[in-house]
Design brief:
4-stranded antiparallel beta sheet, 33% strand, elongated, TATA-Binding Protein, 5-stranded antiparallel beta sheet, alpha+beta, 33% helix, 2 domains, 3 helices, SH3 type barrels, 144 residues
Length: 144
C-alpha cells in the first residue's frame, strides 16, 4: 500500500469520527469526553458538550501537539451492512461510496446514515427508505 493511500484512509477515518462521541487524552494526562465537532490533519480538534473541561465551557479546542489518544465511544453507522441489505433488494444497482459516506442506489437515490437525502420522490426511493428505516431500528435496538 502506498503512503498516499494510507494517508487518505487515515484522513477518512478521522473525518468519520466527526459528529461522534469521543474521549481524548492529552500528553499531560487530562481527559475530555465530548462530541467531536472538527479535526484536521495535525489532530487539532474542536469538541462540544465536553466533560472534563472547565465548568461552564461550551466548546473546547485542543492543540493536536498535545493530543495523545482519541477514542471513539460509539459504534459508527455500518454503511457496508446497509449496502449489502439494499443490494439484496436492488441487485447490481447499489454503489457504496465510503469517500462521501453514502450509498448510491440506481444512480439517483443517495442514502447516508441520516436516511434518503436525494432522489426521494420515486417509488423505488420509498422502498429504499423502508429498508433504511428497518435497518436503523435494528441497529438502534442492538445498541441497547
Amino acid at each position: 500500500m502506498s503512503a498516499a493511500i494510507g494517508n487518505r484512509r487515515f484522513s477518512e477515518e478521522l473525518l468519520g469520527m466527526v459528529g461522534r462521541r469521543v474521549s481524548v487524552t492529552t500528553g499531560d494526562g487530562r481527559q475530555y469526553e465530548g462530541d467531536l465537532l472538527g479535526i484536521d490533519d495535525r489532530l487539532n480538534l474542536a469538541m462540544g458538550s465536553v466533560i472534563g473541561a472547565h465548568e461552564g465551557s461550551l466548546k473546547v479546542v485542543l492543540n493536536g501537539a498535545f493530543v495523545k489518544e482519541i477514542l471513539l465511544l460509539e459504534k459508527p453507522f455500518d454503511l457496508k451492512a446497509l449496502n449489502d441489505r439494499l443490494g439484496r433488494a436492488f441487485p447490481g444497482m447499489t454503489r457504496l461510496r465510503e469517500d462521501i459516506g453514502a450509498i448510491i442506489v440506481m444512480d439517483t437515490i443517495k442514502v447516508t446514515e441520516k436516511g434518503v437525502v436525494e432522489g426521494g420522490d420515486r417509488l423505488s426511493a420509498t422502498r429504499v427508505k423502508q429498508i433504511y428505516d428497518e435497518f436503523a431500528r435494528e441497529t438502534a435496538a442492538s445498541k441497547k
